[in-house]
Amino acid sequence: MSIFGKLFGENEAPKQSSLWKIIASEKDLNEAVENSYHQKTVIFKHSTSCFISKTVLKNFEKEIEDIDQKISFYYLDLLAHRSVSNKIAEDFGIRHESPQLIVLEDGKAINNASHQDISISQII
Q1: Where does the source fall among the domains of life (predicted)?
Q2: Which residue pairs from 88-97 have beta carbons closer than 8 angstroms and sit at least 24 positions apart in sequence?
Q3: Does the pLDDT at position 8 exceed 80?
Q4: DSSP states of 103-117
Q5: pLDDT at 3 over 80
Q6: End-to-end Cα distance, the chain
Q7: Calpha distance 52→81 (Å, rounded)
Q8: Chain centre to alpha carbon of residue 27
Q9: What value, to the nearest 5°, has the Cα angle with vertex 96 and ends 108 and 21?
Q10: What pLDDT does residue 69 have?
């Protein structure tokens, strides 16, 4: 990895891979939406080339380490899967931003936040 990659998080996946379910296709997105009918579901849209997105992701992961609620967490690398990111914006009527957190319940977006507004308080 280049020095810029180290600084800006080039191709960096989320730290807690056991926590995150990866969205890499519309099928994965449909699974996340279906899951939201059974428990609260969170989608984190992350830009792997953005230092701010990398920082927000790390801070968010620290916040949710000890969460005791039944919540499913999904991660979308929006640079690798931009069409899925666009579909999320279209399906839920939420303007695309990065990083972005979208909370789903019963197939609907009930909350969303971007940049430094992303926190556990958006979920609970």
Answers
A1: Bacteria
A2: 88/29, 88/43, 88/45, 91/33, 96/45, 97/45
A3: no
A4: EEETTEEEEEEEGGG
A5: no
A6: 37
A7: 19
A8: 16
A9: 60
A10: 85
CA 69 to chain centroid, in Å, comes to 17
pLDDT at 11: 52
Match 């807690």 to its residue by tokens: 16
Q: CA 11, 15, 78 angle in degrees (round to 5)?
A: 40
Amino acid found at 124: I
pLDDT tens digit string along 27-50?
Answer: 999 999 999 999 999 999 999 999
Q: Are strands 20-23 and 71-77 parallel, antiparallel or unpaired?
A: parallel
- Buried residues in 42-71 as b, exposed as e (16+ CB within 10 A): bbbbbbbbbeebbebbeebbeebeeeeeeb
